[in-house]
Amino acid sequence: MRIFITGIRGQLGTALTKRWPAAQVSGCDLPECDISQLQPTLDAVADARPQVVIHCAAWTDVDGCARDPIRAYQVNAIGTQHVALAARAVGARLLLLSSNEVFDGTQAAPYGEQDAPCPANPYGWSKLAAEWTAQQIVDDCCVVRSSWLFGHGGRNFVHRILELARGAAPLRVVTDETGAPTAVEDLADAIFSLAESGQRGIFHLVNAGFASRYELARAVLDLCGQRATMIEPALLASYVRASTPPRNGCLRNSAAAAIGIQLRPWQEALQDFVGSLQPAGSAAR
Ligand SMILES: NC(=O)c1ccc[n+]([C@@H]2O[C@H](COP(=O)([O-])OP(=O)(O)OC[C@H]3O[C@@H](n4cnc5c(N)ncnc54)[C@H](OP(=O)(O)O)[C@@H]3O)[C@@H](O)[C@H]2O)c1
Q: Which atom of ligand 1 is nearest to the CA of 35?
């Protein structure tokens, strides 16, 4: 099976490239192909003649999207329209990466695939528009929603906490924003299964279990042997941010479970990830 990955050098794109034999995988990223431009996107996909397009490319800076919603829409929504048209032109199946941020987070329970989306910020709206356009253009389409990704080479919350812990300033982390931390390696495995399954529709794919940002930060520092490092609990209301994060960012993987795709608890995935960051022989105590 020939696979084409947009955003191939991003944190998820990088993990996905390892799931198939190298000869079957190709893709594009900035600067060589800007998906907000139609013709280069059509050309890149046509040259590769893929059977499956996995669309990871996106402007993922949520606060940046709130400051510049037009650019967010151009890259995330119009860019997805271009990728979908390119996939349709070669008759490829399309898997689109989307986000828990298509929900506003006001529901008490975790969100299932059947819950009605209603974003609370421009990033979420641009991803919801991407979902709609992808499903309109390509019949053989899967929308994969995930959340709170961590992996090698990415700008993510786990790396941010490790950076902050090296500084002198005390750490302050919110207790009232909850989600499902998800390892890109585990998500890539689940996407591999989904791509091979031939299933269509919306799939939530996150590691099992939920955590607040505070609990996740505590787990990262504990796994690094920094149990003595204090973290001050804070509330979302005490931060001035361009975007409004959903307080409840928790997703429930009902559709994936129904076809036998399971992801392990986030704590196990985080332990493996933090372990892989540390030099051999310096395991956390
Ligand atoms: N990160 C999360 O926590 C999270 C959670 C839920 C869903 N998702 C979704 O999962 C997908 C993958 O996320 P990720 O964390 O792997 O993101 P990432 O590391 O930021 O990778 C995205 C890639 O897309 C590229 N890109 C940005 N604008 C582009 C454009 N106009 N044309 C072509 N490529 C462009 C980026 O290049 P530059 O680095 O040069 O900008 C980057 O290489 C995204 O669709 C995201 O919305 C992410």
A: 32
